[in-house]
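User: quick one, fold this
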Amino acid sequence: MRFGVNHTPSVGWFHSWLDFSPSDTARDMEQIASLGADHVRIFPLWPVVQPNRTLIRQSALRDVATVVDIAGSFGLDVNVDALQGHLSSFDFVPSWLESWHRRNMFTDPDVVASTAAYVEALAAAVADKPNLLGITIGNEVNQFAHAPHPAPHDTTAEQGHAWAAAMVAAARRGLSVASGVSGLEARRGSAPLVTVAQYDAAWYDDAQPFGPEHAADHGDATVTHSWVFNGSAALHGALGPGSVRHGEYLLQLAAAWNRDPERPNWLQEVGAPTNVVDPADAASFTEQTIRHVLDAQHVLGVTWWCSHDVSRSLADFPELEYDLGLFTNDGRLKPAGEAFAALARSARDGATTSAAPPSTALVLDDDGPDGAPRHGIRADSAPGGRFAAAWLELAESALDGRGPQVVLRSRIDDDTLLAARGITRCVEVPDDAPTALLSVAHPATMA
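Assistant:
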């Protein structure tokens, strides 16, 4: 399993892309590498790279490529996010999509074509880097598709599939420029991944047009983002089982929607938000969360949010966003960073091993009329929902301490799939399980 960190620049936050400093970046990457991390996820700002629909700034692309090179000099692989999009309560959407030029980012043909051109150009700019882990289409772009965003770009599930497919295809076109020993064949491991990242309304909110199928059907791995300010910590306490196992639970939920039982699952964002996790508990929360994730199967890795605190000199962030770093803004390692580093080094030294998948699976009732997904399935899966509560009860009672797998009712008769996943026992949610208590995070508290 891979251990990585989402890079929050210590100087200038993500505004640092406006006046890029290689020396500041190198200092950050050296500190991240000191944790025992093997990769970072970076976030070039979309409007900085593509300020006009038909203008992609080559100097900005060169800055992104330079960051990948700098990270590589410290032994770090890099995942590059394309559409920022949304970061720490702020939206970074180009002016050609706002106010007088407002168009739907998911459905307008010109916008989709221009966005795809940007994704392709960004992927091509780093395609020959031997330490490129992959391209993620964007950071939780699904939050633009529905409330509680204050100005959503209305989208249907079908339109979401078309958009995601177009973006994944664009990234793959960009990556295809690398070939031979200087490109894909020289990489550490395998070819770079293309992924689609969503915030957890995709799994928990039935009204969100981007759903589990979008995560599981597009790209090369299924991505989850685990934030316990979504109701988990309020229900269970910061160090309660429903909080420290939330990342594990999301990974098992993701695996249930994968059509390929070997498809990797990536906990691409998880952190200890101080609005619900006391700073004194952050190290314990970090350790327990990662240990439970280690026990899940087909986990590509865990990428912690984030590397550095946000400087208090910057205004208007939600309070929790200032203190999410493993390092302080001036580079001091925090207790949560120490906990992360201990686990990363243990994994690197071979002290952790992958066990066989749990043989028990809890059945998620996804069958609706005419074969369509049952309405309410995501609310049932949300923190406090009847399915989530039943999963947690099984996880806490398991003799080996591992949470059960999840299997969709629509796939329960697929013996080949069950055998491939190592499932020998399927358990139903009790009839008296509690009804859903959905609590979807407001974008102001999304990472």
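User: anything notable?
Assistant: Residues 252 and 396 are 15 Å apart (CA to CA).
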